[in-house]
Design a protein that fits this description.
The chain is α/β, with parallel strands linked by helices. The protein has one domain: Vaccinia Virus protein VP39 (Rossmann fold), CATH 3.40.50. It contains five helices and nine strands; from the N terminus they run H-H-E-E-H-E-E-H-E-E-E-H-E-E. Helix 4 links the parallel strand 4 and strand 5. The mean pLDDT is 96.
């Protein structure tokens, strides 16, 4: 796909994939570098994983859903839900500014602004080294109890334990009671540890992750199992 491993740039945020045409009213595809940093080495992978998560989210949507996409990337899942009749409002957040710029330029207009995107200026050595706040201090740009569903596709796979706690707390804050959080993890921590790794790859024991969620205002709705190589859960806000 590409040998260029650099992070997306402002120029990438103004471009679509050069191998695919633009069609009026249809969400375009991002370029290869944009796809690469959501874990997609190929267009096929980008679409297959997006479709899987789109189906997973759609299964849990209530009527008049207000959705928070935590770590939205270049709208890999969002594109699968653009015209879902049960979604009233969709907010995607990410720490990589070019993703937010690309989504705002190419995705939001397709939905007449119903899908919105906001930058989380969170500091991290890989994705946003000059960020204004640490991951342990993040505040999602949504009011208390304003969302009915939140999801994090391959987001907790890049968070240390302190940041994981904070993101769980914020997810619970913005969800109304009975709202759902769908989240995936890598589940192979080193040795006998419950949690290991860093921003590049973090692993946590599934039972420990569920316990952290429960300590922060959730109950386990169901353990989905493997989705695209990651252990996946549905939690319900108490």
């Amino acid at each position: 796909m590409t040998e260029d491993r650099a992070l997306p740039t402002a120029a990438d945020a103004e471009a679509t994939h050069p191998h695919f045409p633009r069609w009026n009213g249809i969400a375009p595809l991002p370029n290869a570098r944009m796809m690469l940093h959501v874990g997609a080495e190929t267009v096929e992978n980008f679409l297959v994983v997006g479709d899987a998560w789109g189906q997973l989210v759609a299964m849990e949507l209530p009527a008049h859903a207000r959705v928070l996409d935590i770590g939205c990337g270049c709208a890999r899942t969002a594109r699968m839900l653009l015209h879902h009749p049960q979604i009233e409002d969709y907010l995607g957040v990410d720490v990589i500014q070019p993703y937010i710029d690309w989504n705002s330029r190419f995705i939001s207009p397709v939905t007449s602004g119903r899908f919105r995107f906001a930058h989380l200026d969170v500091r991290g050595p890989r994705y946003n080294p000059d960020g204004a706040v640490s991951a342990e201090e993040v505040v999602f740009p949504a009011a208390d109890g304003s969302m009915t569903l939140a999801f994090a596709a391959s987001l907790f796979t890049h968070l240390k334990e302190g940041a994981t706690l904070r993101y769980l707390q914020e997810a619970r804050r913005v969800l109304k009671r009975g709202g759902k959080l769908i989240a995936s993890i890598h589940d192979r921590p080193e040795g006998d540890s419950k949690f290991s790794g860093d921003e590049f790859r973090a692993d946590v024991q599934p039972e420990y992750f569920a316990a952290l969620a429960e300590k922060n205002g959730f109950v386990l709705g169901r353990r989905v199992g493997d989705v695209c190589g990651q252990e996946t859960f549905v939690f319900v806000a108490k």
